[in-house]
Write a structure and sequence with these properties.
The chain is 71% helix and 0% strand. The protein has 202 residues and is mostly helical. The chain has two domains: 50 residues; 110 residues.
Amino acid sequence: MGGTVLKWAAVFRYSHIVPEAFAKVLLVALALALAATNLHAQGRGKREQRRPPEAAAPTVPIDKRDSVVAAPGPYSGHPYWLALAECGGIYFKLNVLYTDVAVRARVVKPDPRINAEYTKKLTEAIKTATIFFNGAEHFLMTDRGLERADAVLTYDSSSRAAADRVKTIDAGQAAVQSCPALYQACRDAFSKQCSEPLASAS
């Protein structure tokens, strides 16, 4: 009789342990399956959210009245207004990228040193962008006889396209490497169109 009781006690204990262990294994398996499904869905969502291919730089109609960059460099042979507008667009994009860093350093993860550094950089970048845009306007107004508003409309798509090609601060800084030399060449050859002194911009 005692052996029978012990036997049933062992069976009873076993019958409780097995379902608990099985339930734990089942829960782990379900959790892994759910995590795998979630990761698969996220991956599919990312693939579906891919950006369309970048638009090529807009083609600019050639106008014989345009003053052309004679200085060596990537802008050689291009109209001055176009070269200046592209540099202005890239400096403007740098301003936006620097602003993002400064805002994070001010609000998200406060860091007064980074905030001060990037606030200075964004201020320099917008000032520099304005100088390049003013130069582009002056060339279009002088060479083509456009009004200021029409000059802005003429260079706007080119400056935006140049800015859109820049995705990071490093890419923007690399893209403006030749811009100060371009502006200096403009000041040397066309002091009226490029009349503002260019401060060094990061």
